Fold:
Amino acid sequence: MRCCFALFLILVVSCKNNKEPVQMEVFETDFIGKSELTLEGTDTGLEIMGVKDICVCDSLLIAFTKNPESQIQVYRMSDMHLVAKLCPRGRAGNEMTDPNGLSGQFYYRKGNLILPVIDNYQLLKEINITKSISNMNTVVETKTDCMPLIQGNFVLIDDDIDNRFEFHSDQIDEIYADQISYPMFIIRKKNKEQKINLYNKLMDSPSLHYSAGFYYGTVYKSPVRNMIIQPLQNMDYIMFFDLDNDKRFAIHQKGTMCIGDKAPDEARIHLLNYLAISNKYFIVNHKFHDAESMPKDKSPYELLIFDWDGNFINSARLDHKVSRIAFDEKSNILYGIGLSEEKMYKYDMSKLLPATSVK
Structure:
């Protein structure tokens, strides 16, 4: 009798867990709208034509641009001197169609700085930045196929192009248009893969594809830990994947839309937009929910600083409208690209970080 009762309890608990919309512990916290400080930026003097994104690689700042003559430009941060123009547009060995960075990732191999990029949305390439600067020519060391970015995005694990943490967004069935595969994650190491299915159900919505869009987000990796994060673009969630300890959890801004809610009818607003990463922290450029109704001269963004364990550290507003950001941990300087211009601003983050982080 006791065995039957225990089995009954197991079944009840299992059914209850299966009804939960997400299979991870979610911590309700409060991190939005806490800014008491507005940082004043300094114009770096750089105006990079067609700049799309930036990242900091030790003493270098790398800009991804739409300039067909140099789609990747390398600057020395000490004086913002341009030291290399790389990746002209084309199909030769040292040319590329449309290179994009891999969530700010870089690493060293035999003393050389390696920058992984995705070219033409489906080719993963490693650029040897050290040799490229020395040779004044783009040096591509390796290239391989990767998941097309139209299907999601990924980061590298252990600085190895064969080891990847992938996010696969929703895929509509080509035959049955009303059937859709749920967003999922794959840990891919060499020829082995581990699938992680987080979501038991999607938001209630007239369109499954529309509701699945709320679960999209770019994945980022800690430079020094096997910790992966994914801020959801359209909900105030940040998902954490601790690969070394096989743990998963999320933090959520209390009082805002939840994963199990009904999908709103109005258009989605990109909230957790762009990130800057460093060894100790990651910085989110968060868009306010009422951004569309804010005065045009006021920035719609708020910087949110977290450590890699999910602890909220601090926040601030900026005096300029910037979108893409990058952080130099050595100098505590944040770089930001103007939202409607090609100027680059820099901000001293020392006042926002714990005393032990300020040098």
